[in-house]
Every structure is written in C-alpha cells, then in structure tokens.
Amino acid sequence: MIINLITPSNFLIPDFMRAENLPMRSGVGVVILNNENKVFVGKRKDNPVDNWQMPQGGVDLGEDYLSAMKRELLEETSIKSIKVLKEIENFYEYELPKDLIGIIWRGKYRGQKQKWFIARFIGNEKEINLETRKPEFIEWKWIFPNDLPKVIVKFKKDMYINLLNDIKKVID
What is the model's pTM? Predict the structure, then answer.
C-alpha cells in the first residue's frame, strides 16, 4: 500500500485561497464623542489584553452605511442616543495579519474597507450596556482622541491615526 502524504512543500494553494486574492469586507465604524470630546472605546471580548477599539462592523447585504453604523453601534453598545456630526468622505482600510487570515470571518476576507462616521453621544451613560445578544466588548471607557493610536491593535494603528485627523477637524 502506498500512502501519498500532502506536505507544505508539495501542496499548492489555489489562487482563490491566497490571502492577497481575498476580497476586503465592507464595513462601517463610528467615532462616538461625549460632551468633553472624549472618544468611546471598548475592550474586545476576543482580545482582552490592553487593546481597545471604537464600535465597528460589517455591512449587511442591501444595507446602507448609515443604517449599518447605527445597527452595529446598538448591537455592540446598546447606544441609540446619538447625533451624527459627520460622515467621513473617504474609506479606510486595514489588512489582517497573516496569522488571523482564515480565522476571522471564516477566511472569506483579507481585511476591511470601512466607511466611518463621527457622532455625538447625547444620552445618559446608563444607556451604555455591553451585555448585548452577542457581546463583543467586556469593558468600555472614554479616552482623549490623541490616545487612540496608543490603545488599538497594531494592524489598525495607521487607520486610527488617519481617523484622528478627521476627529480633530470636527472638535477643533
């Protein structure tokens, strides 16, 4: 009996499965400012080290960006009381690190291309509740905008630096 083993050296990955050929996921994100112009960030349940992020997520089929942003914000934080201050004109992208491709989003995407919004939180903080149907955050806090690049995961840092410039245009 001959057994033919497939090893990394003789296994060819089809082009459609190569990371560089995977599409970008369509997403949205929202910068939530409080009345002191601090930014809402949450600590992700699946990455509980000291990495924080702003609410963000995917766009469902047939959903417009504004509706997707409001849905994602509600699903992740229970926040409803916002006033949209600005829809950021351009899109921001980030690529997943190689070790996360194939794990996040069931291997369908290599990263995200996101439409971002800046909004003012106009409710009471009692409205913020992370115990949602599918919790994504385990903790939340308000931080100064300049601290955003310091708290985000490394692969999203450039995007957050660009977002910081957009935030400053709104709050200055």
Answer: 0.85
**E strands, 60-151, where?**
82-95, 111-121, 137-143
CB 54 within 8 A of CB 40: yes
Q: Which domains does the chain possess?
A: 18-171 (3.90.79.10)
CA distance 53 to 39: 10
A 10 A CB-CB count for 104 gives 16
Give the separation between CA 55 and CA 93, rounded to whole angstroms. Answer: 15
Q: Which two tokens stand for residue 171?
A: 């709050």
Integer Cα distance of 40 and 61 in angstroms? 27
Between CA 50 and CA 7 the distance in angstroms is 37
In which region does residue 146 sit, left (phi positive, over 0), alpha (psi from -120 to 50) or beta (all else)? alpha
pLDDT tens digits, 17-50 = 566 678 888 999 999 999 999 999 999 887 767 8
* 57 beta partners: 28
